[in-house]
UniProtKB/TrEMBL annotation:
This is Gtp-binding. GO terms for molecular function: GTP binding; GTPase activity. Residues 2-71 form the G domain. InterPro entries: GTP-bd (IPR006073), GTP-bd_ortho_bundle_sf (IPR023179), P-loop_NTPase (IPR027417). GO terms for cellular component: mitochondrion. Gene3D superfamilies: 1.10.1580.10, P-loop containing nucleotide triphosphate hydrolases (3.40.50.300). Keywords: GTP-binding, Nucleotide-binding. GO terms for biological process: mitochondrial translation.
């Protein structure tokens, strides 16, 4: 998956497993897509003559591979909230609206510094804009910046530390069923339909 820390792990392995190599060799960032291609091999363990193993250990950094098909919009929103896809594919206001819904389920007091519990995303973002100074010229609330602020605060753990997925027994059983019998994508459905038509025509 994109943006799960592959490049960060590589840098850490190199720093601790090699002699005098403390600089980063892999570029890192808090957004998906920083690593654009497979890099050259990087030594993370010294060879035996330098106190390491054999001829040394080398690893490759690679871009994240994203799922070609996401079964529903809510899953896509969750992936975007944890920065698993490129910023901007889903507007911040939509992400903040979903996050407000989840915070109300978890504990609405996590955002009490902004306002009383509410289901109104516009009222919530207005309160964020007023408290944190996310205002345009003339004091007009900047809803986009307010939404970005909410997402940033949540990702830092300042709006509670909760799991986005439902981990109840029923939800886990439902997920297991989905994994064993995944839904068809549009292309897969078309292919299956064409194959069925072909079989029907042959049988006639």
């Amino acid at each position: 998956m994109p943006n799960v820390g592959k490049s960060t792990v590589l840098n850490a392995l190199r720093s601790t497993g090699t002699l005098g190599r403390k600089t980063k060799v892999a570029k890192t960032g808090d957004q998906a897509g920083v690593t654009r291609k497979i890099g050259t091999s990087v030594r993370v363990v010294e060879p035996e003559e330098k106190g390491g193993v054999g001829a040394g250990v080398y690893v490759l950094d690679s871009p994240g591979v994203f799922l070609p098909y996401v079964e529903d919009g809510e899953t896509m929103i969750k992936i975007s909230l944890v920065q698993g896809i490129k910023k901007g594919l889903i507007p911040d206001e939509i992400l903040a609206d979903y996050l407000l819904y989840k915070m109300n389920l978890w504990d609405p007091h996590v955002y009490r510094r902004y306002c009383a519990p509410t289901n109104d995303i516009q009222a919530f973002l207005l309160a964020v804009a007023q408290r944190d100074g996310k205002l345009k010229a003339g004091g007009v609330p900047d809803m986009g910046e307010s939404a970005a602020r909410v997402l940033s605060e949540w990702r830092k753990g300042k709006l509670g530390r909760y799991v986005l997925d439902d981990l109840s027994d029923e939800a886990l059983r439902s997920h297991e069923l989905m994994v064993t019998s995944p839904p068809l994508s549009l292309n897969q459905g078309r292919k299956a339909w064409k194959e069925q038509r072909k079989e029907n025509s042959i049988s006639k």
